[in-house]
UniProtKB/TrEMBL annotation, chains A, B, C, D, E, F, G, H:
It comes from the Archaea. The keyword Ubl conjugation does not apply. Residues 1-121 form the RCK N-terminal domain. Part of a potassium transport system. Pfam families: TrkA_C, TrkA_N. This is Trk potassium uptake system protein. InterPro entries: K_uptake_TrkA, NAD(P)-bd_dom_sf, RCK_C, RCK_C_sf, RCK_N, Trk_Ktr_HKT_K-transport. One of its GO terms (molecular function) is potassium ion transmembrane transporter activity. GO terms for cellular component: plasma membrane.
Length: 227, 227, 227, 227, 227, 227, 227, 227
C-alpha cells in the first residue's frame, strides 16, 4: 500500500512507525522543519517539508498513486482542506483525525472517514483507569454491551470454579460470555470450554450485554462503586 | 468519587465531561485562563486557574480528600512532577497520559498508572482504517489474538448460513468465535447460538486467536491485502 | 435579508458597510477583539467576538434564520470550515473569498459560491493601470471580449465625428460597439445613436470582441505598447 | 516594459504572474525571505530580498530605467514611502494599492495612481453574490448605470423571443441594451441584431442606465428582493 | 499655540514637557497604552491613545484648530503618513523627525519641515566630545564657520591678556571673534570690550570663520589632534 | 585616533560615518547581526558582532589601544556597564548617550562624559521649529543668552540699514550683537563692521543676552507669539 | 532594619522570606506583575510593581530611610544601575548578586558589596556532591584550607578511637583539627576533648590546612579519587 | 570521573569550568544552540545540542559509562525527568538543582541527591551581608552552631590579647573556639595556640555553638543589631 501521512507530530509519528513496519511505502508531509528532519532520520520513508494544503505538495508526495492519505495535524481546518484536496486528486481512501467533536459531521458530510474522536477515547480510558481500575481494556458493542478484559482477584467468587459450575451457580448472567482466558505460562489465550477452570490471576476477556457493571466486577473479586 | 483532573485541553475536556456526567465530584486545575474559564462555564466542577506543579494548588483542589488524580497536560515532565507531588499528598489513585513512549517506563518506575500510549492507540486506529477498512473496532487480547467488529458483506460466503453450517464448512477456524451479532432492527446485540443465521449487513463481534487476518476478512466478504 | 459576515478585516469591513447601508440585518463574527469592537462601534449590526469555526458561534449569530453567510477571513482553511458548518446549519446562500487560486475548485466541490479570486482581480487592475493607463475600468466577457471604459484623447481620430461617420471610415471594427457615453455636464450616460457626435474628453463604454487591443486604444488617441 | 513590483504577497504574486506572462521585464522587491525565495523560484524575474523604503534597494531593482512601479504591500504607510522615493527616482508611472479608504486622497495628493479601493471592490462582489445571485459580473458606468452579465432563466419572459419582439413588447426599457450574447457551443460572443433570438441559458451582457434593478432581473427570470 | 504631538516616546516626552511648560495647549497621540498613560499622568495635556495615521484620530486631537503638529514616532513611514494627513486637514505648521537621512528629501518634497537629522546631530556631538573635548557646545554657520564654547586653560597663551593685547599679538585670526564670556561668579555672560581681560577658566563663546581648528584650540591651551 | 563605537543603530551609524570620514581607525561592536553586517558593508571599519558588556568583546575590539569609546545603545543600563568595563580596561576617553534624564548624574558619578540629553535637544529643536519658525539654528550660552541664526524678513525694520544706523536707532539692545552675516552669493559669512548694510534675506548670526525674545524676532520682521 | 529587596524571583523570594522572618521592615521592587502579586500575598512587606532603575521607584520604596538595598535581578546591567542610583540616594549598605564573574570587579570598582559569585558557589557544591560525596558541607579558609563536615564511615580507621589515640597514631595531620562532633541523640554538637571517642556515623566538623584531600577522606572511611 | 552536565547556563557554566579543570571527562547537554556553541568553544568537553529529556540524548552523552550526572536546568520538572531517565540508565551518582523549595522532597522521594536549595543559600548570604556585614563567610553546623569568618576590628576588646588571656577574661564563651587565623603576610592560616596573640585586622575562623550572636560580633569589635 502507498500511504501519505500528513503531520509527523504526536499521532503522526507512531503512525509512520506502524505503517513502515507493516511494509508499506510511506510518504510524510510535515510543515515543521525539525519534525520533518526527525521523521526522515528515524523512518524509511519519503519526507516532504512543506505545507500540505497545496496540491503541488500532495503531488510531490505521490498523490496520484497513493492508496490512502491520513491527515493527523492538530488543526481541524487544515485537516479538512487536506482531505478535500486529496479527494480532488482522487486518493481512494482518506482518513482524518478530528479534534473538535462538533466537526465530526462536517468530515462525514464531505465523505471522509474519521478517527472516532481520539481525545474522547483517551478520556474514557483514563476515566475507566480510575473508576474501574480492574478493567484492563474494553470495547463498546452497540449502545450498552462491552467486551472487556478483567483480572480474576484472589478472593473472587469465581476463582477455582469451572465455567459450568459458574454457570450453574448463576454467577454470570445470561448475557455474559467468557470469550478467552489469558493465563501466565500459556503462550496463547485459552478458548474456554465448559470444564475449563477459572483460576485467580487469570486475565479474562468477557462479553457482557450490559457492559461493565458493579455486579460483574464483583464476581471477579473487585468491589467498585457505581461511579 | 472525588477526582482531580489536571489540564482542561483536548484530552482533559472530554474527561471532565465523562467524570461530571458520571456523578463524580470533580476539581480541575488548568494554568491557561481561557481554558479554565471555559471549563468553569461548561461543567459543574471546581476550577482552579493555577500551576499544578505546586502542592498548594493541589491542596486547593482538595488533594487531601481526593480519590484519584488524572494528569492530562501535554508535557510529560509537568505530568511527572504533578504525579510525584500527588504521591506525596497521598492521593490513592494516580493516572497520567504519557506523550513520549520512551517515558512510559519512567512513570512506571515511580508507580504511576499510565494511559497506554494514547497517540499509538490513535495511530493504530488510523492505520487500521486504511489497511483493514472493513474492521469497525478492535481490541488486542495478548500478543496476537483480537476481538473485533466486522460487517458481513453482501457477497460474503458466510451470509445466509447458520453458525452450525459455517462451522461445518470450516469457514471459521478453530480459534475463532462469533461473540455477538448487532442487527439492524434489534435493540440489543444477539447472543449467537448454533442455529442463529448470519445475514448480510450484520455487524459481528468476532474473537480470533490469530487476530484480523486476510483469511478471516475474506470469509466476511472483504478482500484486503496483507498490508 | 439576514446576512452573517465572518471576519471584520480589510474585506469584511467595507462589506458590512455595504450590507448595513443596503438595509439588511447583519451579524458579524470576528475573533479579534479590537476589530470586533471597531465594527460594533461603527455599524448598526450584531457583533460576536468569537471563533466562527464553531456551530455554537454560528447559532449565536442567528444561523437558523440567516439568508446568507459570507466568509471573508484571510485563511482558506478557516473559510472552508465555516462554509461546511454553515451548510450543516442549512444557510441557503454561502459565499467565501478564496486566497490560494488552487483552492477554488475545493470550494466549488462542496458547493460554495466563491469570489472569483480577488487578489488576481486586483492584480489585473494594477497591471492594467500601468500597461493600459487609458483604460479606466473593464470587464471580461468570455475568453477574449471585453467591455471597458476609455477617455477620448484630444487628438483622437474619432473625436468630432458622429458614430455613423466613424463606422463609415471603419474606425471601429465589426465586433466593436460604443455602449454608452459619459460626458461632462450630462447627468446620465448618453445612449449613442448614429448621429451622436463623439467629443474629446468623453468617457466611452466600449464593447470589443477582441478585448482591449492597441488598435482600439489608438483610435481613441492613446498610443500604448502591446505589453 | 520594465516593471518593479513591491511586495510578493497575496496581490503581488498574481501581479508578477500577469506581468511576466505579458512579456515584461519584472523586478520584485520583497522583504520576507520565504516569499522572496518563492517568487524567484516560480517566475522569471529579478527578486531583491530587501526593504523597499530605501533608494538603494530601488536602484538595485533598476529604478533608473523602470517604466513603472506598483506597490502592493499591506501597509499604506510603507506604500506611500515607496511611492515618494519612486517619484524622487523619476519612475514615470507609479501605482499603489491603498487599504484604508481614508488614505486614498493622500496618495492622490502626492500624484500617485491608486487602485480604486480593492477591498471595497471585493466587498461589493461578495455582496452582489448574495443580493443579486443571478448577476455573474458587473461594472459601474457613472453613478447609476451598469454593464452586467446575467443568465437567461428557463422560464424567463424573454426566452425564445427575438430582440425585436422583446423591444416591441417593451420588455427592456429605453435605457437598456443587450451588448453581447454568450451561448454554449459558440466560440465568441454573438453580436445581437434585431432578429437574434434569445434562448434560455444564454449569458447576456446588458447595459442598463438604471443599474441592476429587480425589474430587469425579473425579465430574465430571476426573482430577487430589492436588498 | 495649539500643538499636536504625535508619539510620546524618547523624543516626544521632553517635547511635551517643553510645550506644556511654554504655556501651550497640547494634544498628544500615542498608540502604546503604557506610554499614553504615563504622558497623561505627568503632563497637563489631552492624550489620545490611538493610531495617528487616521484622520479621525487627528480630528479627535483637534486638528481643525491646531496651529502646529510635530510627528516624533520612530518610523519614517508612519511620520510621513501623519504629515500628509495633517496637510489634508490644513494644519498650518507641520514638523517631523526623520530617522533615515535618505528620507529627508522625501519629506521636503511634500513640503514638511524636518528636524535636521537628529541622529546625525547627536552623532556629531558625541564625536566632538572625543575629538575636541575642549569644545563644550557648538553651532555651524554656513559651510565652515562655527560659533562654539571653549574653556580657557590654565596655561593658555591668552589667559591674563586683554582682548586688545590678544589682538595686538595676533593670537586670534582676522575671522575670529570673542562673542561672550561666561565667568564664575557673574550672573550673565560678559559682553567683551577691548579692555576686557581673559582669565583662565573663563568659558568663551567664539565665532570662527574657519570653524574649530587645532590652531584655535591651541590658543586656549588645548592641544588636540586634527582628527 | 582609535575609536570604539558601541551600537550601530540610529545614532551609532552616523557616528561611524563621521568617525571614518575623519580618518580615524574605528571598531564597532553591535549585537544585532543585521545591523553589524550593514555597518561592515558600508564603512571601512572593524565590526564585531557580539555583546559589548563583556571584557573579551571589548578586548577583541582593541580596547587596550583605543583612544576613546562611545556607547550609543538604547538602553542606559547596558551603556553604563559598557562604560564601567571600558574604565577597567583604561580607555582614556569614554562617552555615552543617556536616555533617561534621571540617569545623567549616575553617569557623571562614575566619571563618564555624557551627551547632554540628546532627546531633549531634539525636542527643543522641534519645539523651536514651531514656536520660533524664523530661527534657523540656536545655541544656549549660560542660562538665558543665546546665539541664533535668523533670516531678515522683506519688511524688517532693520533691512537696508547699516549696523551703525541700527545701533543709532536702538533697534538692537545693548546686549545684542550681530556676529556674522551669511548672504546669498558670498562664499563665506561676512564679518559685520559699522558700515555693513543689512539686506533682506540675509541670514544673521545674532548673540542676545536675553535669548530669542519676541522683541528681537520682531526687529527682523517676524511676528511671533511669546509661546 | 529597613531593607529594600529588588527582584522577587528565585533568589529574591527566599531573601524576602528570611528578611521578614528576621523582623525587618522590608520593601520589595519587582517589575513582573505576577511575581509582585505573589510576593505581596505571601509576605508581610511593601511591594512596588515597577522598574527599579528609576529614582522615583526607589524613593517610593523608601530609599531615603532604608538601611540597606539588595539587588537580585538576573541582569547584571540592571543590578549595577540600581546600585548606582541607590548610592545617589545615599542608602548606606548596598549589595548585589552578580551573574557574569567578569563583572565582579566592576561592582567592586563602584563600591558595591557583591555576593561572591552565587553560580560558582552552587557549581562548586554540585561538583563536590559528585567528586567528594562524603563531604556534607564545606567552607574555604584562605587559598587552600577548608572547614568541612564529613560522616565517619563504619569501617573508618578513626572510628572507636579517642582523639588522643588518633593523634598518637598520627591519623590526623598537624594542620588538621576536629572542630565539632554532631552525634545522633545529642541535641547540640559536642566540643571535642582529648578523651572524646569518635564513633561511626558521627558527623565531624574538620578544619584542614590542606583542604579536603583523599588522605583525609580516607581516614574517615571514604575512598575517593583525586578528581 | 566521567561526568554529564545537563544545562550550560548560569550554574552549568562554572560547573563545566570546575569539572574540566579538575581533569574529569565531561559531556554537556544543552538545548539552546547559542549556549551549546559557547560551551564547546570555551571548554574541553563533548557538547550535545539536544533535549536531555530523552534516553537517546543521554546515551549519546555517554550515559552507560558515566560516573555521575548533574542536572542544572532552570525548570524543576525538566530536572526531575532527566534524573529519572538517568536512574533508568543506571548512572550511579545523580545530583540536581531544585528551584522551588517545595519540590525538594519530591527529588528525595525518588532518590536523587539535591543541591540544598541554592537560592536559599544565596539569599542567606545576601541577608548576612547586610545584617552581619562583619561576617565574611559562614557554615551551619547542626541547628544552631556555626563556623564563620570574622575580621578583628581595630577597637576590638580581644585585639592584642593572647588566646589564653582572652579565655581567662571569659571573652569567648565555653562553646566558642578559634579554629584558624588568617593574617596579612602569612601564606597559610595560623593554627592558634594558647600563646597566639590576636591582632587587629586578623581574619578569624570561629566555631560558635550558638551561631553568630551579637555578643560574639561585639567581642570582635562589631556592633550589630539582632536583626
Amino acid at each position: 500500500m502507498y500511504l501519505i501521512v500528513v503531520g509527523a507530530g504526536d499521532i503522526g509519528t507512531p503512525l509512520i512507525d506502524l505503517a513502515t513496519a507493516g511494509g508499506n511505502e510511506v510518504a510524510v508531509i510535515e510543515r515543521d522543519e525539525e519534525r520533518a528532519d526527525r521523521a526522515a532520520r528515524q523512518y524509511d520513508c519519503l519526507v516532504i517539508n512543506d505545507d500540505a494544503t497545496s496540491k503541488e505538495t500532495l503531488r510531490d508526495a505521490g498523490a496520484e498513486r497513493a492508496d490512502a492519505l491520513i491527515s493527523t495535524t492538530d488543526r481541524d481546518a487544515a485537516n479538512i482542506m487536506v482531505c478535500l484536496l486529496a479527494q480532488e486528486l482522487s486518493i481512494p481512501n482518506i482518513v482524518s483525525v478530528v479534534h473538535n467533536p462538533e466537526h465530526m459531521s462536517v468530515f462525514e458530510q464531505i465523505g471522509v472517514n474519521t478517527m472516532q474522536n481520539p481525545q474522547s477515547l483517551i478520556a474514557e480510558y483514563l476515566y475507566r483507569a480510575v473508576s474501574r481500575p480492574s478493567v484492563v481494556d474494553f470495547m463498546h458493542i452497540g449502545e450498552e454491551a462491552e467486551v472487556f478484559e478483567i483480572t480474576v482477584g484472589a478472593n473472587a467468587e469465581i476463582a477455582g470454579k469451572t465455567i459450568q459450575e459458574a454457570d450453574a451457580e448463576g454467577l454470570l448472567g445470561d448475557d455474559t460470555l467468557i470469550v478467552a482466558i489469558e493465563r501466565s505460562g500459556e503462550e496463547r489465550p485459552i478458548t474456554p470450554r465448559g470444564n475449563t477452570r477459572i483460576a485467580a490471576d487469570d486475565l479474562l476477556t468477557i462479553y457482557s450485554g450490559d457492559g461493565v457493571t458493579p455486579e460483574i466486577t464483583d464476581v471477579f473479586g473487585h468491589t467498585e462503586d457505581d461511579g
